[in-house]
Specification:
Layout: H1 3-19, H2 26-29, H3 35-51, E1 56-62, H4 66-72, E2 78-83, E3 87-89, E4 93-94, E5 103-112, H5 123-128, E6 130-140, H6 151-156, E7 161-166, E8 182-187, E9 190-196, H7 204-216, E10 227-232, E11 237-238, E12 244-249, E13 253-259
Parallel strand pairs: 1-10, 3-7, 4-13
Antiparallel strand pairs: 1-2, 5-6, 5-10, 5-11, 6-7, 8-9, 8-12, 12-13
Helix pairs in contact: 1-3
């Protein structure tokens, strides 16, 4: 794909983010766009945010659970960048009108104490490099109209990342079975989704290893101090102003968020 077109598409997505508008799917307008092209579009979109003063604080893995794959019709993982402007803390309110078409996912976040860079990173390497894990929400959002996305669309759109919310408890990953820990997601006091750690590519540490190896092939490390979101453990839950959500993961703790 022509570099000028990649820049234009990245700029379009950035403008859609700023103006809180949606775009027609890139794959409809440019059917020949490849995943590699889409990641270059993502890099342009992120570059615009960095130019505006934000900084990268971590990475996210998307489309790791079968439930999300089936909802979106996308059947392979992807990744995106987390910026400081996306971060909310436990219990904070999020203004719903700062997002476009948000959906909530309950996830396990990894906080790294050492760099990880592929190739050859294993799940054991991930655990050894992890300071702790936290319960978190990722509030995914799409700049693509009506979530009508193929994998190239979500990749270009920074893996459909909106914002994320971290719990207030950091747990040693060796003190909890990350594969079997159960997740319960409540919306306005009712259970709307359940899952387990194994939903994320069989094990959350597998998902982080996949990310380290995939980024390693691009010469990009996962850095000490970064937050890595390991993927949704259940289906996405639509949210709007007035909603109150809480997610609890066995052995790790809870995280809550409200939309105003």
């Amino acid at each position: 794909m022509d570099p000028r077109l990649i820049e234009r598409l990245g700029d379009e997505l950035h403008q859609a983010l700023v103006k809180r508008e949606t775009l027609a799917p890139l794959t409809e307008r440019h059917p020949d766009i490849t995943i590699e092209d889409a990641y270059r579009v993502q890099q342009r979109m992120i570059a615009r945010r960095l130019e505006a003063g934000e900084r990268i604080v971590g990475k996210k893995i998307g489309v790791t659970s079968r439930a999300v794959m089936n909802m979106l019709g996308v059947y392979q993982p992807d990744f995106g960048m987390l910026l400081d402007g996306m971060l909310y803390n436990e219990g904070e309110a999020i203004a719903a009108d700062t997002l476009i078409q948000p959906k909530a996912e309950g996830e396990i976040a990894f906080v790294l104490k050492r760099d990880l860079k592929g190739p050859g990173v294993t799940a054991a390497d991930v655990l050894a490099a992890t300071e702790g894990v936290m319960t978190c929400f990722e509030i995914v959002d799409s700049r693509i109209r009506d979530w009508k996305i193929k994998v190239q669309d979500t990749v270009a759109d920074n893996a459909s990342c909106g914002v994320f919310v971290l719990g207030d408890r950091l747990v040693d990953p060796r003190r909890v079975d990350l594969n079997t820990c159960g997740m319960v997601l409540e919306k306005n006091g009712e259970i709307v989704a359940t899952g387990a750690g194994a939903a994320a590519l069989g094990a959350p540490a597998n998902a982080v290893a996949w990310l380290a190896n995939t980024l390693g092939s691009l010469d990009i490390p996962l850095k000490a101090g970064e937050v890595i979101l390991s993927g949704s453990l259940a289906a996405m839950v639509p949210v709007k102003a007035g909603d109150n959500l809480r997610v609890t993961i066995g052995g790790i703790g809870g995280c809550s968020v409200r939309f105003v």
